[in-house]
TrEMBL record, chains A, B:
It is an enzyme of class 1 (oxidoreductase). This is Sepiapterin reductase. InterPro entries: Biopterin_syn/organic_redct, NAD(P)-bd_dom_sf, SDR_fam, Sepiapterin_red. The keyword Signal does not apply. NCBIfam families: sepiapter_red (TIGR01500). One of its GO terms (cellular component) is cytoplasm. It is found in: Cytoplasm. GO terms for biological process: tetrahydrobiopterin biosynthetic process. Keywords: Cytoplasm, NADP, Oxidoreductase. The keyword NADP applies. It comes from the Eukaryota.
Length: 267, 267
């Protein structure tokens, strides 16, 4: 059986680490990874970045954290080109001091929850895909360059997926398309790269701001009502609970590269 | 058993109908659909549009054809807003004279055949997804608006898919992502809309310009060599042969909405 992914001294990048699932992932992984590990936290919100960074350092002073204001939907090439090197410099760190590099592609948006026939605004659709797909592809490319197969003995990329990646959901076309294409991304990279593990983790329907959005903005009445009930009855999955399952999967480390593993799947 | 899709007097939209598979689809469907059917052909290339339109009319003078210069990767909202109405006006036609509306989402590009780690240019990746996903989503939305479930007894959307939609292919990340998300699109629309049939048809490895591109530009050596052999030995599938299979599927009309059917699947 493979070693746990969480036993290796790592540089661990998390996108969207300031709220909801991303925050829980950053915080809980920081409690699991060995001393000397470095977190690189990327988000648009500087104040919330400072908060989660402070929380991590308070609980684990053997862990380093650097943050960078980062907009995944930006078309600023320089932002993508420089983000990892800048963060390493800021941390006074070098790639070769780590046994492993981890990227958690968590950042994404849930919007334009219209029926497909109403998705007729070119600019709005372009903006959605730019944020949810293009930025994720380019950031991942840069991650693979900086933390290359020759520089690192081990790399791990975790895509935060969804049931929507594998199952069509009415009035969630763009979200379903983004998630299915990001699942495919983990499959392709899993075949292309050496020294890599890639995983699609679908965290279940979470008690986050996103579910509130889903319960109010989803155009399809039955899907909207389902989220309304879940929010009202507080039956959504807590982020920490879902991250526990993710941690179990990473510790077990027996998934096939590119696999789609759901919170509700057998451990 | 359901009636053949090709027995109904139709308005039939084909994107990318000037070359390769799209041309064969437009031409062969024009020979199958009933008198009075109207073809709306959309492409960037006016000269080639005129050529395929002329070919169709020469063989079937009971079929009407209108063409429109159309760039699926454009961000010009007016282009998308007006294309179908303009074409109907040009043809002197009205939606209610047709029993069925068909959209063949064939247009797409095969480019940036790099390993994922080299896909680091934000603008280039945005352009790819704009052409291959956004334009397809918005055009389809407009199709569903103009040829609505109340206006039309029957609608059909055929997405030209690929093995790459369901199977990862090294150095084809963007193509795999676009195709998997477009497959998902047919699943979602198939659930959202009334009076609709949606199909993903993977036409097999075709003897087209695209396979020449694949055989020269694919970065992965083994995939490139496979295409080189196919091109050299002329063992790729002819477009007309693949369209025959598609026609069989449409005539049989027994596929589940959103199904992914490959040229090599059992008929």
């Amino acid at each position: 059986m493979a070693d746990s992914i969480l036993q290796k001294k790592s540089v661990c990048v998390v996108t969207g680490p300031t709220r909801g699932l991303g925050r829980s992932i950053a915080y809980q992984l920081s409690k699991k990874l060995p001393d000397g590990s470095l977190f690189i936290l990327l988000s648009k919100n500087k104040a919330l970045l400072d908060e989660i960074a402070g929380l991590i350092i308070t609980h684990r002073d053997e862990i380093r954290v650097v943050t960078s204001v980062f907009d995944q939907g930006s078309s600023d090439q320089g932002q993508f080109d420089n983000v990892f090197q800048d963060c390493l410099v800021k941390a006074g760190a070098h790639v070769n001091e780590f046994e492993q590099a981890i990227l958690v592609n968590n950042a994404g948006t849930l919007e334009l929850l219209e029926l497909s026939r109403d998705l007729d605004n070119v600019n709005a659709v372009n903006v959605f895909f730019s944020t949810n797909i293009t930025g994720c592809v380019v950031l991942t490319a840069k991650f693979l360059q900086v933390f290359s197969a020759t520089a690192m003995k081990a790399r791990v990329i975790i895509n935060i997926s969804s049931l929507a990646a594998v199952s069509p959901m009415k009035s969630w076309l763009l979200y379903c398309m983004a998630k299915s294409s990001r699942d495919m991304m983990m499959k392709v990279i899993g075949e292309e790269e050496d020294n890599i593990r890639t995983l699609n983790y679908a965290p279940g329907p979470l008690a986050t701001d996103m579910s509130v959005i889903a319960s109010t903005e989803t155009k399809d009445p039955s899907l909207r009502a389902w989220f309304e009930d879940q929010v009202k009855n507080k039956t959504l999955v807590e982020c920490d609970q879902s991250v526990e399952k993710l941690i179990t999967v990473l510790e077990k480390n027996s998934f096939a590269n590119g696999a789609h593993i759901d919170y509700y799947d057998e451990a």
